[in-house]
């Protein structure tokens, strides 16, 4: 697209946010020139989209050749080359292969990369894309013990899926899965870690990701481990021990240990391991030391902003994301951002928060596309309903998990009440109430409560008269509120 050409949109990133943005723009303004610039050979697409309820959605994610998109939208050009630099003043960007593209409106959807505990340590792995997942699998097949650091979704899935290898799981909180649930839910899930895995996995109800093709550089999505055997070198089924309330103090390779004064610490706290027998040794802030084959760093993502920052004056949030307003605009004019790379800096609805998840990447990409089109067409547009209520469906430890609103009482301080119902091995239901109104819920298992609770959260009805009956299993709550 020549710089002088009018009505031209450039989208950077072939992940879910970028592709959804392209699709939205191209269908809304079919005559516009749209270019998608992406680092990898493939793009990600949403398939089998299903609206489960007003706020909850499910879909499959597929890796596809970009030609599929180009065939669908004749005015779309896909360029496979990473963006090297951006000049917001002249409205142009350059790719590493030296091509220069002008834009009228640009949307940055370059995602994020794993936050690594240390850079350039061959014994520390981050999992982000198909390539790194395959590297992990390869290394795991020869491993006897690994240490997983982190307490988010990736760590949760990993420790549950890995077999044939001892897993030491270091979490910084006092309970597992802190990003998603409270200590009660963690308590409900812990027995699943101790039990052997069910022979036949329950049918998978959430988005499926294909791993047949090579990596595209996009973040993996749900079920990234499906189809990848996560097996270590030992005969054991699952063996996980959790180290709570600790972070990583230091990571040593065996060579470093041999020449280091800390050598005795490592030996002292882990006497059964002679220092030289493990390639790497990890010292935790709780004073314990573990030798292992490698360390998996699953401590979140860092937004991929570098190529865009230099020479420009983007406002960047504390978490490293590009700050965007309620129209997905960054602080630089005509530059939008969506997905993992951005930080939502508008005044959030009291029931929504940003989490770097698949569904939000789709919603932001779609909404950014609509905003870009609306601005070009001088139309008014308001913040979409999907940012009204946080909602997420996933699966942890083979249980269906639904999260709604302020499911962990986020930002509510002590101003909230919890109601909990738990049947061991079957379901865990938690409701967060503030001033008698439901503001969040965690539903684990086949509770069938998501739609009713979603409605109760959205209509902010005063539930004080119902008290604990709200979770009384003998009352059919759906009938109650119909
Ligand atoms: P990405 O999917 O990361 O796409 C970024 C795109 O930008 C890529 O195509 C990349 O090639 C391109 N790019 C990057 N830099 C440049 C550049 N300089 N120039 C050109 N192109 C560039 N979410 C869930 O909801 N549920 C889950 O179960 C879940 N599991 C996950 C498991 C793993 C292992 C990981 C890593 C993530 C998981 N996530 C999950 C999170 C989810 O994958 C992300 O939130 C989502 O993919 C973000 O989409 P995106 O389009 O913003 O970015």
TrEMBL record:
The gene is pyroxd1. Residues 9-162, 282-365 form the FAD/NAD(P)-binding domain. Probable FAD-dependent oxidoreductase; involved in the cellular oxidative stress response. Required for normal sarcomere structure and muscle fiber integrity. Keywords: FAD, Flavoprotein, Oxidoreductase. PANTHER family: PYRIDINE NUCLEOTIDE-DISULFIDE OXIDOREDUCTASE DOMAIN-CONTAINING, PYRIDINE NUCLEOTIDE-DISULFIDE OXIDOREDUCTASE DOMAIN-CONTAINING PROTEIN 1. Its cofactor is FAD. Residues 394-460 form the NADH-rubredoxin oxidoreductase C-terminal domain. This is Pyridine nucleotide-disulfide oxidoreductase domain-containing protein 1. GO terms for molecular function: oxidoreductase activity. Belongs to the class-I pyridine nucleotide-disulfide oxidoreductase family. PYROXD1 subfamily. The keyword Oxidoreductase applies. InterPro entries: FAD-bd_OxRdtase, FAD/NAD-bd_sf, FAD/NAD-binding_dom, FAD/NAD-linked_Rdtase_dimer_sf, NAD(P)-bd_dom_sf, Rubredoxin_C.
């Amino acid at each position: 697209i020549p710089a002088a050409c009018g009505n031209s949109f450039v989208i950077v990133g072939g992940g879910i946010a970028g592709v959804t943005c392209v699709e939205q723009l191209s269908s809304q303004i079919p005559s516009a020139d749209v270019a998608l610039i992406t680092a990898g050979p493939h793009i990600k697409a949403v398939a089998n989209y299903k609206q489960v309820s007003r706020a909850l959605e499910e879909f499959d994610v597929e890796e596809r050749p970009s030609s599929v998109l180009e065939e669908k939208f004749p005015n779309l050009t896909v360029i496979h080359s990473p963006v090297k630099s951006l000049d917001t003043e002249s409205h142009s960007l350059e790719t590493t292969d030296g091509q220069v593209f002008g834009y009228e409106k640009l949307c940055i959807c370059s995602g994020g990369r794993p936050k690594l505990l240390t850079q350039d340590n061959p014994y520390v792995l981050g999992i982000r894309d198909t390539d790194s997942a395959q590297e992990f699998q390869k290394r795991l097949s020869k491993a006897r013990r690994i240490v997983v650091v982190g307490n988010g979704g990736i760590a949760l899935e990993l420790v549950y899926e890995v077999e044939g290898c001892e897993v030491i799981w270091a979490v910084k909180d006092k309970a597992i899965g802190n990003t998603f649930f409270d200590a009660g839910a963690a308590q409900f899930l812990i027995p699943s870690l101790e039990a052997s895995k069910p022979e036949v996995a329950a049918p998978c109800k959430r988005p499926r990701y294909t791993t047949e093709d090579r990596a595209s550089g996009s973040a993996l999505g749900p079920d990234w481990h499906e189809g990848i055997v996560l097996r270590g070198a030992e005969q054991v089924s699952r063996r996980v021990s959790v180290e709570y309330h600790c972070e990583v103090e230091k990571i040593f390779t065996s060579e470093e240990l041999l020449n280091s004064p800390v050598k005795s610490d490592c030996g002292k706290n882990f006497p059964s391991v002679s220092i030289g027998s493990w390639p790497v040794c990890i010292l935790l802030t709780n004073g314990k030391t573990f030798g292992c084959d490698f360390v998996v760093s699953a401590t979140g993502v860092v937004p991929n902003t570098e190529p865009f920052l230099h020479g420009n004056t983007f406002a960047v949030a504390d978490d490293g994301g590009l700050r965007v307003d309620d129209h997905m605009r960054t602080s630089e004019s005509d530059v939008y951002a969506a997905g993992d790379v951005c930080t939502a800096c508008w005044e959030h609805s009291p029931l929504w928060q940003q989490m770097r998840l698949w569904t939000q990447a789709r919603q932001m990409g779609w909404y950014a596309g609509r905003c870009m089109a609306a601005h070009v067409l001088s139309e008014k547009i308001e913040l979409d309903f999907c940012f009204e209520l946080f909602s997420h469906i996933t699966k942890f430890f083979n249980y269906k998990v639904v999260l709604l609103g302020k499911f962990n009482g986020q930002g509510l301080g002590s101003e909230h009440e919890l109601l909990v119902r738990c049947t061991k091995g079957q379901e865990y239901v938690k409701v967060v109430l503030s001033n008698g109104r439901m503001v969040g819920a965690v539903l684990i298992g086949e509770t069938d409560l998501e739609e009713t609770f979603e409605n109760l959260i959205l209509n902010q009805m005063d539930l004080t008269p119902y008290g604990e009956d709200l979770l009384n299993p003998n009352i059919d709550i759906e009938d109650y509120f119909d």
